[in-house]
Write a structure and sequence with these properties.
The chain is α/β, with parallel strands linked by helices. The protein has one domain: Rossmann fold (3-Layer(aba) Sandwich), CATH 3.40.50. Helix content is 42%, strand content 13%. β6, α8 and β7 form a beta-alpha-beta unit. It is globular. It starts with 10 loop residues before the first strand and ends with a helix. Bound molecules: adenosine-5'-diphosphate (ADP) and magnesium ion. Magnesium ion (MG) is lined by residues 24-25, 48, 52. The site of adenosine-5'-diphosphate has 16 residues, from α1 and α10. This is AAA family ATPase. It comes from Nesterenkonia flava. InterPro entries: AAA_dom, DNA_Partitioning_ATPase, P-loop_NTPase. Pfam families: AAA_31.
Length: 271
């Protein structure tokens, strides 16, 4: 139902911002669901100990669920922990459990501590190939609001960073620290890494403030800001409590349409 082309290789996108509450998880979940809806094979990797992306996509993530923790710390393979999203075809999820809260410390003493997610993901892509499964088109990694080893693993595993920015005062505050970290990872661990996408979230078109923020962000990131902005929307906020993306919760809502549009733009800009 779409004329959007598949990428020539899997696009691995880390969703990061060290501020909490800016829409990282909401954007991960809904962009992933929107891309699956557009017909792509999508994987979400939840590396936030809060496990909000796992909750929102309706996959089990109680303490006894095998999860990304076991992949990072105990060398389980992604194939052993991945779960199909019950609500969305073509979308699977590597869940996070509460154990991940300890991983930040446990990783410190492990070999290849920065590369563990990258290696697991490469191995999983080879595994899918040998199993005759379709190639993944998009992988989204939902980061915690910090710049510790979990986020470093996400930066090393990805080629792209997507930064959600909330349209509010001080929207850009703290971003230079994030950008410095990305530069450092690029220099020392993962040369192809770049900030490919800025997504403006919780946008309220009625306020002058919102359009001022848009102008300011565009000045800093002339080529990265998506035209599609995500409006502040009750539907978006409600959907996770029904364990649904906003796309399945209320497909005709402004929030769902905005995420579908942002997803299409991400596809087109990747060409
Ligand atoms: P983060 O992952 O960056 O901490 P979340 O995605 O969890 O941020 O969003 C923080 C809160 O804001 C959540 O309660 C979420 O439901 C709400 N939220 C996110 N985006 C929107 C939006 N566009 N409209 C309304 N509420 C939103
Ligand atoms: Mg989050």
């Amino acid at each position: 139902e779409t004329d959007l082309e598949r990428p020539s290789e899997t696009r691995i996108i880390t969703v990061s911002n060290q501020k909490g509450g800016v829409g990282k998880t909401t954007s991960t979940v809904n962009l992933a669901a929107a891309l699956a809806d557009h017909g792509f094979n999508v994987l979400v990797i939840d590396i936030d100990p809060q496990g909000n992306a796992s909750t929102a996509l309706g996959v089990p993530h109680s303490a006894d669920t095998d999860s990304i923790y076991d992949v990072l710390i105990d060398d389980l393979s992604i194939a052993e922990v991945v779960a199909q999203c019950p609500d969305v075809d073509r979308l699977s999820v590597v869940p996070a459990t509460i154990h991940l809260a300890g991983a930040e410390i446990e990783l410190v003493s492990l070999v290849a501590r920065e590369q563990r997610l990258q290696r697991a993901l490469e191995e999983y892509q080879r595994h899918r190939e040998t199993e005759g499964q379709e190639r993944l088109d998009y992988v989204f990694i939902d980061c915690p609001p910090s710049l510790g080893l979990l986020t470093v693993n996400a930066f090393v595993a990805a080629k792209e960073v997507l930064i959600p920015i909330q349209c509010e005062y001080y929207a850009l505050e703290g971003l230079s620290q994030l950008l410095n970290n990305i530069n450092m990872i690029q220099k020392h661990l993962n040369p192809p890494l770049r900030v490919s996408t800025i997504l403006l979230t919780m946008y309220d078109a009625r306020t002058n403030l919102a359009s001022q923020v848009v102008q300011e962000v565009k000045q800093h990131f002339p080529n990265e800001v998506l035209e599609a902005k995500i409006p502040r929307s009750v539907r978006i906020a409600e959907a996770p409590s029904y364990q649904q993306s906003v796309i399945s919760y209320d497909r005709s809502s402004t929030g769902a349409l905005a995420y579908l549009e942002a997803a299409a733009e991400i596809v087109q800009r990747g060409r």
